[in-house]
Specification:
Length: about 350
């Protein structure tokens, strides 16, 4: 068992005139009295400053296919060591990981691991990357950065799976250390963000434009499609048009099926036809790489060359069935480049998922 302290000082906060301290990591701007925790649960006011109380603690570790993050254009076929902590800075009524992200119990954080140990384990298990996922790494900013730095020393990439709800200064520092990200664009209306997630749309769009124009981070977008909430043709049109106009045509988007969970159990699952329609709209509006997720749909799992239409990568769920890219990431049929981060050969991890117990590695 590691003996690292789970409580560390942070720097994104300031004192208020009324004696409270404001957390400046995310736009929620929690204003806390001594001993109070932010909505995220893991950032707390102690001794008139904000501390992180979950440093080095995790809700568990697992090796996943990188496509499960989902990232289809970042080191395809390779294994990624995934982990999260407890808490979240959003309040999504549909949360699919609510047992972790909504946890208020420190016992959820059963596993302890220093950044150096995590990097060592990822290397021993031949993982090409490590992913901060299950809950949002924005709230464990300091730990995620330290882990990313330790991984880079071992030639292991860092991946952030995030809702993108973060303030400017911590965002800039955080993404200096990330190699790839998947940003969850939950909807394209302020009404949805405010009513269903307890947050706002504008900061997420700012994160997306920042990643595209101010960093070299490879990123993809996920849109979880919820029946009756964010599944209108007009919303798909507006969202995909905004993406092309502000981010360009090469940012992949994943339209994923919703399954009833947490506080939205009365909703039905997303039907395949809706996801196909969303994908068709994205392609029509100029997005080159549009996918369907959480469903079995061959066309929606396949990467096509935007120039000649040939199949570049065929997937069966998370299994790679065909690879039609050169070592430089170009279409073997017409020579056009496919946007992404590719190695000379794809990985062969496949669809398997493997739980990891650090004490046994």
């Amino acid at each position: 068992m590691n003996t690292i302290s789970s409580v560390v000082e942070t720097k994104y906060w300031h004192e208020l005139d009324d004696g409270r301290v404001q957390c400046d990591v995310c736009p929620r701007a929690c204003k806390l009295k001594e001993g109070q925790q932010g909505l995220c649960f893991v950032r707390e006011c102690r001794d008139h400053q904000i501390v992180l109380t979950s440093y080095g603690r995790s809700s568990g570790f697992c090796i996943d296919p990188i496509e499960k993050k989902p990232l289809n254009h970042f080191l395809p076929g390779t294994p990624v060591l995934s982990f999260g902590t407890a808490g979240c800075n959003l309040a999504c009524k549909f949360c699919q990981n609510w047992d972790i992200s909504k946890s208020r119990e420190i016992d959820t954080l059963a596993d302890a691991a220093s950044p150096e140990l995590l990097a060592s384990v990822a290397k021993q298990l031949n993982c090409r990357s490590i992913a901060f996922t299950y809950n949002d790494p924005v709230i464990f900013h300091e730990y995620a950065i330290d882990v990313a730095q330790a991984c880079h020393e071992n030639n292991i990439k860092a991946v952030a799976v995030s809702a993108g709800y973060v303030c400017e200064a911590p965002r800039e520092e955080f993404y200096q250390y990330m190699d790839a990200a998947n940003i969850d664009l939950k909807a394209f209306t302020e009404r949805f963000y405010h009513r269903v997630t307890g947050s706002h749309l504008a900061p997420v769009l700012e994160t997306l434009t920042y990643l595209k124009h101010e960093t070299d981070v490879w990123f993809e977008i996920t849109n979880l499609v919820i029946p009756g909430e964010n599944d209108s043709v007009n919303e798909f049109e507006e969202m995909t048009q905004w993406i092309v106009e502000n981010l360009g045509p090469d940012v992949p988007i994943h339209f994923s099926a919703f399954h009833p969970d947490w506080k939205m159990r009365e909703k039905g699952s997303t039907d395949l036809e809706t996801l196909i329609k969303a994908r068709e709209i994205a392609l029509k509006n100029g997005i080159r790489y549009a996918y369907t997720g959480n469903v079995h749909h061959e066309a929606g799992d396949t990467t096509f060359c935007h120039q000649c239409g040939e199949k570049l990568i065929v997937r069966d769920w998370y299994e790679l069935k065909l690879w039609n890219l050169s070592s430089e990431g170009k279409c073997l049929s017409c020579g056009e480049s496919c946007a992404g981060v590719f190695e000379e050969k794809p990985g062969s991890w496949g669809a398997k998922r493997q739980a990891v117990h650090l004490g046994k590695v």
